[in-house]
Specification:
Elements: E1 3-6, E2 16-20, H1 25-34, H2 48-65, E3 70-72, E4 91-94, H3 105-118, E5 124-127, H4 131-140, E6 145-147, H5 151-155, H6 167-176, H7 181-185, H8 189-196, H9 198-207, E7 216-217, E8 224-234, H10 237-257, E9 260-271, E10 276-287, H11 290-302, E11 310-322, H12 338-365, E12 371-375, E13 385-389, H13 393-401, H14 413-420, E14 438-449, E15 471-474, E16 477-479, E17 481-491, E18 501-509, E19 514-520, E20 526-532
Parallel strand pairs: 1-4, 5-6
Antiparallel strand pairs: 1-2, 2-4, 2-5, 3-4, 3-7, 8-11, 9-10, 9-11, 12-13, 14-15, 14-20, 15-16, 17-18, 18-19, 19-20
Helix pairs in contact: 2-3, 8-9, 10-11, 11-12
């Protein structure tokens, strides 16, 4: 979801514009495709990194077409009432001194609408006296293009969610029967502060323009690039390598002046047949190592299949970051401190070696072949992790902000004594065999064999007959369960789509295999093999 909202003005005049896209990016794609019967809707997984990139692109476009001062809204640590995602969805544009360039405020709204249409989006626009009021009008006013002429009268019918209050405060207001900003304005602020805290009073002061809202202005990153045209088209790799070396030196010098290192570069090749090819280089860590960067670019060029000789080469830095520096030793030149210098510099050298290894493998095998793993909060084992490209720093930053589902669990002495009384104990969170070493990509269906009168041995032998684990057939072979541990219930929440409810068991078969199987309670109790412990 993308939104643009106005900046507050201490002069009390309308100086801002607010644009709020009512749906997420994927929903916008579905709406556009639905208008054309020949195009199927595009459905994809929500990507917070793509949302952030799209917001930056819109901010850059508004900065060049509408106002030189564009800010991206700042968020708190918790979601506001009525907020679906903890992501920025609003841009604030200061219109001081630019309104006359568009023949008034209606022209401003029309220009902002055209900027949105450039990216294929639809939005909610509002102009108000301050940032908080514009945010509320853009999100909770029914008009797609709204210009506030009377601030108090315009914000009174809006929902209290327009104040960006805490969810607990919203629940208290619901119990009191207060659902609009106008209802809050009719109450004394002293009583509100005593009953609901100072936060809601501060939000009221912001929407009335009595307090300025802190905003983070958008600054486009400086572009570092270099282009050269060859005297004549050539496919000689030595000549191409020499030109790439010169371009890399120029770009490195530009980055060094800004005290930044390259993270992502693109090398454009202009061919003699008027076609263009490119190779993109992603780096694990910011660097100014010219030889390393040149080698990666050269490897990318060699992997391309060029139909004609090269006549033009361009190198552009797509992403850069502040250099990571670390002093290895206080007295590195001293012979007595060489061992200490090695000890201090070992971690830094290891990180540099790891980064170069990742860069080289990504350049040779492709960025999609060298991946990292991040645990997620999804309870389903097949969705308990996600992979990401190690050279995609937008994704890496977004994943760092996500909370990890791992929690440290401390065992007490009582727990140890209790578990020692039983030979077959239930798995705990610190048990190394709680989860299988190998998780199948897709669970394999098992054909259960009706249990005989004899019961399986284990701690749970007191279970009723219909709950006992049966023997099962897999790949034409009968497997009899000797021991089992469980069940462990794993289920999803209602907000994750169709309900998934499973009872997982660790079972040991008569052949000595230790497997992880589950009973799908949502499909009439069908059994599946999901993992192997050995």
């Amino acid at each position: 979801m993308v939104a643009c909202c106005p900046l507050a003005s201490q002069l009390g005049v309308r100086v801002g514009i607010a644009i709020a896209q009512a749906t997420e990016l994927v929903t916008s794609q579905i709406r556009r495709a639905a208008t054309n019967d020949s195009l199927p809707p595009v459905v994809c997984e929500h990507d917070p990194v793509a949302d952030s990139v799209a917001l930056d692109q819109l901010a850059a476009n508004l900065q060049s077409e509408l106002s030189p001062l564009v800010a991206i809204e700042t968020l708190g640590k918790r979601r506001w009432a009525g907020q679906v995602l903890l992501e920025p969805d609003t841009l604030f544009c200061d219109l001081s001194g630019v309104t006359h360039l568009f023949d008034g405020e209606p022209g401003i709204l029309a220009a902002a609408r055209r900027c949105l249409q450039t990216f294929g989006w639809e939005g909610q626009l509002a102009i108000a006296d301050n940032a908080a009021a514009a945010w509320a009008l853009a999100h909770y006013n029914h008009s797609a293009n709204f210009i506030s002429n009377d601030l108090i009268a315009d914000i009174q019918p809006l929902s209290v969610n327009g104040l960006r209050i805490e969810t607990e405060t919203k629940h208290t207001l619901d119990r009191l029967g207060i659902d609009t900003i106008g209802g809050l304005l009719r109450l004394p602020r002293g009583g509100l502060a005593q009953r609901l805290g100072d936060g809601i009073v501060r939000r009221l002061a912001e929407v009335l323009g009595e307090v300025d809202v802190p905003l983070r202005f958008y600054h486009a990153e400086q572009q570092h690039q270099s282009i050269t045209t060859l005297e004549y088209p050539t496919d000689d790799l030595s000549i191409i390598a020499d030109r790439v070396n010169r371009l890399t030196a120029t770009v490195i010098a530009s980055l060094s002046a800004s005290r930044r290192g390259a993270l992502r570069l693109v090398c454009h090749l202009g061919l003699a047949d008027q076609t263009r090819r490119k190779t993109v280089v992603g780096l694990f860590a910011p660097t100014l190592d010219q030889k390393h960067i040149q080698g990666l670019i050269q490897s990318g060029i060699e992997s391309l299949s060029l139909a004609s000789p090269i006549c033009k080469i361009g190198l552009t830095v797509l992403q850069s970051a502040t250099l990571q520096t670390q002093q290895q030793s206080l007295f590195a030149s001293s012979q007595a401190n060489e061992d200490e210098a090695d000890a201090w510099g070992q971690d830094s050298a290891s990180k540099q070696s790891l980064g170069r290894l990742i860069d080289t493998l990504s350049g040779r095998l492709g960025s999609d072949a060298v991946l990292g793993i991040r645990l997620s909060d999804n309870p389903l084992p097949e969705r308990a992790y996600r992979t990401y490209c190690l050279t995609d720093h937008q994704t890496r930053k977004a994943l760092k902000r996500l909370p990890s589902k791992q929690r440290r669990v401390h065992r007490t002495a009582d727990d140890d004594r209790a578990s020692s009384r039983h030979f077959y104990s239930a798995p705990t969170r610190h048990d190394t065999r709680r989860r299988p070493m190998k998780l199948l990509r897709s669970p394999l269906p098992l054909r259960p064999i009706p249990a005989s009168n004899s019961t399986a041995s284990g701690r749970q032998n007191t279970a009723s007959l219909q709950d006992r684990l049966p023997s099962f057939e897999l790949s034409g072979r009968l497997h009899r369960i000797v021991y089992y541990w469980g069940p462990e219930r794993i289920e999803t929440g209602w907000w994750d789509g169709p309900s998934v409810r499973r009872d997982y068991y660790r079972v040991e078969t008569d052949s000595g295999h230790l497997w992880w199987i589950f009973r799908d309670l949502a499909t009439d109790g069908k059994w599946f093999l999901h993992g192997r412990f050995s």
